[in-house]
């Protein structure tokens, strides 16, 4: 059995930067174990699978190399890019039904704008292992639905992080987001998800649903420019829309091909 596969670099306009995601269009859902095996074989931070439900309407799921996740920004962007660029979607917006509810993606100039639910965060008392894993004492720590948000005082501290990933796996959360004010953008970040099979994610759309409400309140701004300081790097424009967050970015195709499964 042959299935089409695309690899898209998301949150970038240049190949070999941003966050690569695999996209597998399906006519019907495969068994979960098969989709998980495909994601493990791809060995990217996320593989997206979608099945069409109606005109400009799709069901969408995401898998890391080890687990299925409830929300993924860059692979949603990649799936939309795939549909617009390679499958001839003519409308200006697409609807995706997911484990996080209805998500929409629209065209915006040379890129796309995604409408996601905002994460609700509360200030938290950090576990001792978190500071030990990061090798520093945070300015503050917040907890969202799935991830810790660690706030540092400056961009250079985020860039210099060299966390102990073994200790980071002891933190009881999906992942750890580390963020600080940016020098040339409103805020910067790095994101670590060793418990989900991704040591450091290059550019994390879902993390910006957690960071955007924090920085919007702190900076007194509704629209902000953000940059993720991974080795590949990526840029996202974030806009608060009440209980939703608009995340804007570009994407570029790296690979088109076929996979074979039994």
Please describe the topology of this protein.
Layout: E1 2-10, E2 19-26, H1 32-42, E3 46-54, E4 57-63, E5 68-69, H2 73-86, E6 93-98, E7 101-108, E8 111-117, E9 122-123, H3 128-134, E10 140-143, E11 147-151, H4 155-159, H5 165-168, E12 175-181, E13 187-193, E14 198-201, H6 205-219, E15 223-228, E16 234-241, E17 244-249, E18 251-260
Parallel strand pairs: 2-3, 4-6, 11-12, 13-15
Antiparallel strand pairs: 1-2, 1-18, 3-4, 4-5, 6-7, 7-8, 8-17, 9-10, 10-11, 12-13, 13-14, 15-16, 16-17
Mean pLDDT: 97
**What is the count of DSSP helices, taking H or I runs of 4+ residues?**
6
How many domains? The number is: 2
- The CATH fourth-level homologous superfamily of the largest domain: Diaminopimelate Epimerase, Chain A, domain 1
Q: Could you say which overall geometry the principal axes of the C-alpha atoms support? A: globular
Q: Major beta sheet, specifics?
A: 18 strands, mixed
Radius of gyration: 18 Å
In sequence order, what are the helices and strands, one letter per element?
A: EEHEEEHEEEEHEEHHEEEHEEEE
Poorly predicted sequence stretches spanning 5 or more consecutive residues: none
CATH topology of the largest domain: Diaminopimelate Epimerase, Chain A, domain 1
The CATH architecture term of the largest domain is Roll
Q: What is the beta-strand fraction?
A: 35-45%
Structural class determined from secondary elements: alpha+beta
Percent of residues in helices: 10-25%
């Amino acid at each position: 059995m042959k299935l089409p596969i695309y690899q898209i670099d998301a949150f970038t306009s240049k190949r070999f930067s941003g966050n690569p995601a695999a996209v597998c269009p399906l006519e019907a859902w495969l068994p979960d174990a098969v989709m998980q095996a495909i994601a493990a074989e791809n060995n990217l931070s996320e593989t997206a699978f979608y099945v069409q439900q109606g005109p400009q309407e799709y069901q969408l799921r995401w898998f890391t190399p080890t687990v299925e996740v409830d929300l993924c920004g860059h692979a949603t962007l990649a799936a939309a890019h795939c549909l617009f660029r390679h499958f001839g979607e003519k409308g200006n917006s697409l609807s995706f039904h997911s484990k996080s509810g209805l998500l929409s993606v629209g065209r915006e100039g040379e890129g796309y704008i995604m409408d996601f639910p905002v994460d609700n965060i509360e200030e938290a008392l950090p576990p001792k292992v978190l500071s030990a894993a990061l090798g520093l004492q945070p300015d503050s720590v917040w907890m969202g639905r799935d991830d810790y948000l660690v706030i540092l005082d400056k961009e250079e501290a985020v860039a210099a992080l060299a966390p102990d990933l073994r200790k980071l796996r002891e933190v009881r959360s999906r992942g750890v987001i580390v963020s600080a004010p940016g020098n040339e953008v409103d805020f910067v970040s790095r994101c670590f998800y060793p418990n989900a099979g991704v040591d450091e994610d290059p550019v994390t759309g879902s993390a910006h649903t957690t960071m955007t409400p924090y920085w919007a309140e702190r900076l007194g701004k509704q629209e902000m420019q953000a940059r993720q300081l991974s080795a590949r790097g990526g840029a996202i424009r974030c806009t608060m829309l009440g209980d939703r967050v608009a995340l804007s970015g570009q994407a570029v195709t790296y690979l088109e091909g076929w996979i074979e499964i039994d």
